[in-house]
Amino acid sequence: MGQDHVGILLNSSMYRGIPQRKTGQESISNYEKAARTNGFIPCFLRLGDIDTRKNYSIAYIRKGHDYARVSMPTPKVIHNRALYPELSAQRKIHSLAAQGTIIFNRNNRYGKDVIHRLLQENPSLSHCLPATVEAAPSSLSCMMAQYDDLILKPVRGSVGQGIMRLQRDCLGWGLTYPSKTKKAWITDRIDQAKLPAWLHRQIFDTPYLVQERIPLAEYDSSPLDLRVSVQRGALGAWGVTGMFLKVAPKNSFISNIAKGASVYPTQLLAKCFPSKLAADALCRVEALSLSIARYLSSRLPLLADLGMDIGLTQSGKPYFIECNGRDQRYGFRKAGLSEIWQDTYNKPMAFARYLYDNGILISSLI
Predict the structure, then answer these.
(1) Is the domain of 159 the same as that of 262?
(2) pTM (predicted TM-score)
């Protein structure tokens, strides 16, 4: 396969940390191994160093034990691991694609409302979605009339930021939200007929979704869900690379790792369900995750690498919660699943090899 080059597009802050190996949760060494396995030399890029007129880029490439910035032809295939929401950046990425560079996972931050709306349009998937509407005073009141437990989450939030819970009990409604001064939750009693003014301002200033809270299965009295890595590999087909459990911290209702959730291999499900039900539930989670990935990739261009959060009810029914187009993957390492962690880097590089060798047209990638 020779000395072919593959690009990995990073944000500037992560890119600057490459010489000191300070790249946060992104493992440059895993990329190096995965690229070599697939016959590539990895080139770490940032968008500002790509010259679309000359088709040249400045990239970090490993030279011995160190990384050097070199000028080189822009790689034929690039895996996007960066967030570039600016319109000028999107234009540049589209310009690269128009010139023949294949950039997969080109957009890796779709709003939760966009993903939910697309899935809602598919009858075979809509039954696995919690009831969800865009937040407004009228829609919030309507959802409160139908459900006793609701989640409010920002359309474009990540790592659990800004999430709130509305729950009705024998005393009425309680609104739970994060403290601004310490790592704790605050619960206020509220009047359904007169929601707090600050909540109205929040959902007016920041687009929010209101979502039925699924009664999730629990471990040690804490709710859990599964992170499922769904990726394209050597033959271009979607597959589940691996999954692990996320268990919310005590007295919390969210299971984001960045908010203190614990992670475990899926074998822990046997302590939450009868063994046969646990095995069946995992099969259903895998089937649902693959169906969602295949459908989304038929509607959104060049998807190839998704981290999905799938909830399970106590009966073992899976529900789609959300998906991340830039899955951080380190949860596999924290769960002691080092081989799967490495494989989450290998699969995108295998897909890059498939694209590189087959000269796949962007329009044919569905």
Answers:
(1) no
(2) 0.93
